[in-house]
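W.,

You were right to be curious about this one. When I first looked at the sequence I had no strong expectations either way, so I just let the prediction run and decided to look at it fresh. Below is the sequence, 139 residues in total, followed by the output.
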Amino acid sequence: MKDAGFFKRVFSLIYDSLVVIGIMLSLSLLLVLINGGSTEENKFASLIQFLIITFSGPCFYTYFWLANNGQTLGMQAWKIQLISQKKDLSVALCLLRCFVSIISFLILGMGYFLILIHKENRSLSDLLTDTQIIDLKKT
């Protein structure tokens, strides 16, 4: 199995990010409609909005990785797939991968740039969760 390269992974991430943003905006609109369009400070609505922003991405990725054989919509478009090295993908493993990916992004993307120098094209989230992204065209 051939590991997916940096650009395929980044373009897939961009594609998926657009979908996640769409989900967040849709859920936020629903929240505004439920809240009656009020602009008043509502602590419960603020909490729900925070939860929407925080968990939309991890829920999206976890759902698709588990329900769609390790592929999100962006990964399908770019013909790449997430696989686990030692065990099947699980909710805990997927959420851990999402958490490490967020950390990788927050440290100026260094966890992703590791793909460029690692001999097996692995990112920080790949290494810490013992997973890999494979290129389906090269298998």
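Here's what jumped out at me. The radius of gyration is 17 Å. And, maybe more interesting for your project: The chain has a mean pLDDT of 92.

Coffee later to discuss?

I.
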